[in-house]
Structure formats: structure tokens, C-alpha cells
Specification:
Structural class: mainly alpha
Number of helices: 13
Largest sheet: none
Order of helices and strands: HHHHHHHHHHHHH
Shape: globular
Number of domains: 1
Low-confidence stretches: none
Helix content: over 70%
Number of strands: 0
Strand content: under 5%
Mean pLDDT: 79
Radius of gyration: 19 Å
Length: about 260
Amino acid sequence: MGLLEYLCSFASQMENILNPLNSSWTIWWLTAMCAFITGLSKSGLKGFAMVTIPILAFLYGAKASVGILMPFLIFGDLFAIISYRQKVPWKYIKNFFPWAILGIILAAIFGNQINDIQFKYTMGIAVLICLSLVSWKEFRPKSKLELSKGLFSYGVGIAGGFATMIGNAAGPIFNLYLISLKLPKKTFVFTGACFYITLNTLKIPLHVYYWNTLSLKTFQLNLVLIPFLLLGSFLGKYIIQHIPEKVYRSFILLVTFISAIMLFI
């Protein structure tokens, strides 16, 4: 084999490794950008990852994009857990965790029968309602409205579990619940990471065997793009350290509002 043939063969092998889905390099770089944004979001800039949902859905199709995004979310949560090591705060999430599991089961059963447009509108309305409640609690501190217990936490669990299975779109819903607890920044990020990584890990068998949206090739793409996710994670952690607590909470509410509006577009 001549040198030119060897180089061509090597380039072809490298392309199969780096681009296992054989997509265009434009799509590859846009996916890498989504991995970077996911890293930013998971390290503390909550809500940014919502931007990746419509982008990946456009690039790969709505259902397939869910399987591509989920491993990025798991890797991002794992980095957040390592970065903000604390005692696992199960007391903050135990109220709605079983209901989130119920939401995932319902979504897995009925997911193939749901109209995407109707679902997006419904979720957008639900997020805006939750946002209104949290904003009222945030800016009216003397209000007796309690968001961390009872029907609100159950509703958050079911809606969030359903949304995370359908489109990895539960971030705004769970963020609203966590921000209603008035947690410090690091505890907020760590609590969310523990909860998300648990839920997403439980979803893996459903994506592999039931929806067939997660395969060896899609996972290979996730592994190849991990450096972009880590870069976003390091940058996000650096940024969050310089944001005051009150500004951070207002930022989360603003991004959540924008994320809800995106569901209508």
C-alpha cells in the first residue's frame, strides 16, 4: 500500500471514529456546540440546555435527538457532582421523586402517540404557570404560598418525569421547584445534578430497548464530544462563582421564562 492510500485509509478510519453517524461536519460541529452549552448549563447556568433541544431536534429529528442529548446530560451532571461535592440532599427531592418515576413510565407508554406541537404548547403553559407561582413566592416573601410540599411537588414530579422522558425538557420545571426552596448556588446545582443523573440513568433501558433512540454509534458520538462538554462545564463553574446569589436566582427565573417561550416557537 502506497503512502497516499495509507493516508486515505487512516483518514477514513478517523472519520468513522470521530463521526460515527456519518453526518455532515456542519451537523457535527453544531452537535459539539450543543455539548458545550450542556456543560455550561449543568455546571450552574441552569436553563441554557433548553436551547439545545430544538437545535438537536432539527438536526436529527425530535425522537432521535432525545437519545443523543441524554448522555450529554448525564456526563454534565457527573461533572457537577464531582465539582460541588456535598452530602446527597435527598430531603429536598424525596417528595416528588416517586412521582417523577410515574411521569417517566407514563411518557414511555404514551410517548409515541403524543402530538409534538400539542405537547410543546401544553408544557409551555405548565412551565409559565409554575414560573408565575415561584415568582410570586420570590417577590412576595411574606406570602404563605408553599411550593415545596403537597400537590405542587407531586405535580412537578409527574410533569417533570413526563417531560424528561419525552424531550429532556424537564429542566425548567425542576429548577422552579428547587429555586422555591431558596437553596444556595452550590447546593442548588448539586441537588439538581443528583436528581437528574438518577432519573436519566433510569431512562437508559427505555431508550435502548423500547424507543431504540440510544445506540453504540450515538453513544460513541457522545464520547467523542466530551471535551466540548467539559470545556463548557469549566467555563460555567468559573462564571457562577462570580454571580451574586440574588442575581443568580433572578437569572434562573429569566432563563426559565425564555425556555418556556421557546416551547411555543
